[in-house]
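hiii, so i know i said id send this last week but things got crazy w the move. better late than never?? heres the sequnce for the chain we talked about at the cafe, plus the structure i predicted for it. fair warning i was half asleep when i ran it
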Amino acid sequence: MQLSCRQIILASVISLTCHSVRSQSIVGSWKTVSNIIEDVDGKSRDMSARLNQKWPCLAELQTIFNANGTQVMKSPKNCGPIDYNKLPASTWKMIGNTISITNNSMPSPLGNTATYSVKFIGNRAIFIHEYTREEKIKLHTPNAKKLVITYQKF
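okay and structure toks below
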């Protein structure tokens, strides 16, 4: 069977495309670049920047997603309002581009599980959570639209 030049080129393009489109993994150590709350009017505030101003050592905070489905945080000793090193592990599960993180150690008005859509751009993972009407009520933030957390791989 002889292949035409066109078939060979098509097969090469398909092969290259398959090799370059690899699923990125959340597993590994990540640094929080920003933690932005965006309001419905377009205004935003970066909660990480505020915390890093008060406690510069928090810039070294690591969020670690382990392959076994646990998530831990590590920070320099005596850094910030919480000793992140002593927090029990959370659990995480990722299906497609949606990650759910369950944290039983720090109560939240929204419950123990947070769900985000995730997109990877280079060495960054961007977590996005769009607030529902019910969540806005529970948080007493009627103008909040979404939370965008950007992590950078260590």
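btw The radius of gyration is 20 Å. thought thatd interest u
miss u guys!!
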